[in-house]
Amino acid sequence: MTKSSELNERSQQLLKTLVERYIHDGQPVGSRVLSKDSDLKLSPATIRNVMADLEDLGLIHSPHTSAGRVPTVNGYRFFVDTLLTVKPLHEQELDRLHQGLDKRKNDDLLGMASKLLSETTQMAGVVTLPRKELVCLRHIEFLPLSNTRVLVIFVTNEHEVHNRVIHTSKKFSATELQQAANYLTSMYAGKSLASVRAEVLKEMQEDQQRMNQSMLDAVSMAQLAFNKDENKEEDYVLSGQTNLMDFAELSDMDRLKSLFDAFSQKRGIIHLLDKCLAADGVQIYIGEESGYRAFDHCSLVTSSYTVNDEVVGVLGVIGPTRMAYERIIPFVDVTAKLLGAALNTK
Length: 346
Prior knowledge:
This protein has helices at 3-6, 9-25, 31-35, 44-56, 73-83, 91-100, 109-121, 174-188, 193-206, 213-225, 253-265, 267-277, 325-343; strands at residues 60-61, 70-71, 124-128, 137-144, 149-156, 160-167, 236-239, 282-286, 298-307, 310-320. By secondary structure, the chain is an alpha+beta fold.
């Protein structure tokens, strides 16, 4: 039997009111407070009985010696799945998202999306970088530095500019570097970085007989530029993590240390966000549902974003389980759609 079939309309209404009160006030909610709610029209005694039933079902619990009750993870889950009414964004909020994610005005769309999620929700905003196998090379340039050092500048998905320094086996002139860049752009523009990496490796291993020295030099530089192990990039962009210190339930030093360690180590968060790549629409992980101990007192609201109809990454908001889900969900949903539209290369 599901919990929704066990709860009558009165019990559901009381649970909804209790969760909303706790999200708003951050204090355990007692029967006296609930009895003053004009929509319930229930006596304190009746409310106490209903709350006892909700506690038996594992939807609320009493923290320490408090007379009030707070939602459990199961209570939040029931609230989100069954009782939540999502509020549409205000026009000025939509305008702010549109302006921030206008690629004509902003080169760092991923960073801006993370920042907007953080600033609009006053929590932490996270955006994973597009998966490398779906990032397309558009243009490449080589600029000579001192000795055998060369600056590589390449553009992906029409507007994202990357740069890195490589060390070549010999010194090249600016003309030679320009020729190499022209050759590589003509050969690989429009292909994903993963396929460029694979084709460069194949060329180095199999086709050296048909290549002149300048072509060999170009392919050798491309191998250095796109070497997977040497060029580890950030896996995600995170903004506003210090906002989490403002929530009493996360301000415990041990919890904060665990959270910030998780942010710096990244592996667990990336694994969690990768789970969202295969899912459609907004996904919500509440407390221990994430399977990630550092997030036991947090909720994560995510949505994948697409480029050219391919799911390439995930963005979301990290905050306390006591978050205003009705506001956070549309912010995440709309931001994902706008980011995908701005990154679209068609």
